[in-house]
Amino acid sequence: MAVTVPATPVRRAAAAAAPALRAGLALPAGLATLALQLTGRPAAAQRLQPGPTGTGRRLARLLLGLPLDGLALLLLGYAAFNTVRNFGYPLWYLHTDYHQAWGGPTMAGVWAVHAAGWALTLVVLLRWPARWIARGQQALTTRLG
């Protein structure tokens, strides 16, 4: 008998962020995979980044996927930086005059507005562009596989 786990908001958020995280880490993973392949560890390379086998195909995937992988890494970095910045708003901007900021005059209101606004932006950033990039990466990997 299978046990089903209820879909909590945290699980749904993690499931939504997984393709973006995988897409964003494709460039560092590709470099590490190529290094493993070149050092004679193809099984470890395949576990790290499933896809094309053989050094030539892995190098082709890395070079042809560079624009998509670089864009995904840039998008992931932007999302991570601004997540820390917006959710940690009180830490960074408490010493400033936040009374005129969006959501002011209290720090709780300012934080709530910035956190909610960034959460909506993050959904848009991770839902569509990151998934489009991930689909392009998958198509390239399948084509070379």
The SSE string, one letter per element, is HHHHHHHH
Shape: elongated
Low-confidence stretches: none
Terminal residue distance = 37 Å
What is the average of the pLDDT values? Answer: 84
Supply Rg. Answer: 20 Å
Structural write-up:
It contains 8 helices and no strands. The protein has helices at residues 9-24, 26-38, 42-48, 55-64, 66-87, 89-93, 107-127, 129-144. The chain is elongated and about 60 Å long.
Notable traits:
76% helix; single chain; mainly alpha; 145 residues
Summarize the structure.
By secondary structure, the protein is mainly alpha-helical. The chain has helices at 9-24, 26-38, 42-48, 55-64, 66-87, 89-93, 107-127, 129-144.
